[in-house]
């Protein structure tokens, strides 16, 4: 199963140094039955993009919680056994945890398929979104507009071998 693990650039640097993403338990995002039902699509690429987007939102939440880290969302796509990614069967449609799965233990970075990171051009919008996230969560429409502005930026695709250049 392909899962998408939200990180920050310092988190990616730690994973690179350790050779694994962890320690567990890890929160990741995947094409779960609930995500499939919510997205109403049979196109696996669209569904995986939706899971990647959910992970990018979780990365933004991590950025909002740590104002010292670079303002770039990071998601690592990792292949794990189906049994390793456990979803919450009680998570309903529209839930903030849609597509969320738990992985009990650390995942070797060798299992990573790709890394997705915001471009430097996105940093100001991502920083503004991280700052506005709390207000958006409380129903502020202007703040939600700012958060949505970060989502307008596509994450760039990198091969795993490019991680050292990303974490310099």
Q: How much helicity do the residues have?
A: 40-55%
Number of helices: 6
Distance between the termini: 30 Å
Low-confidence stretches: none
The main sheet orders its strands as 1-4-8-9
What pattern of helices and strands is seen along the backbone?
A: EHEEHHEEEEEHHEH
Radius of gyration of CA atoms, rounded to a whole number: 15 Å
Average pLDDT number:
89
Please describe the biggest sheet, giving its number of strands, its sense, and whether it closes into a barrel: 4 strands, antiparallel
Break the fold down into its secondary structure elements and pairings.
Elements lengths: L1 E6 L1 H10 L1 E2 L4 E4 L3 H7 L4 H21 L9 E6 L5 E3 L12 E4 L3 E2 L3 E6 L5 H15 L3 H11 L4 E3 L4 H4 L2
Antiparallel strand pairs: 1-4, 2-7, 3-6, 4-8, 5-6, 8-9
Helix pairs in contact: 3-4, 4-5
What does this protein look like?
The two termini are about 30 Å apart. This protein is about 40% helix and about 20% strand. The chain has a four-stranded antiparallel β-sheet with strand order 1-4-8-9. The chain has a three-stranded antiparallel β-sheet with strand order 3-6-5. The protein has a two-stranded antiparallel sheet with strand order 2-7. The radius of gyration is 15 Å and the shape is globular. About 35% of the residues are buried. The protein is built from six helices and nine strands, in the order βαββααβββββααβα. The protein is of the alpha+beta class and about 170 residues long.
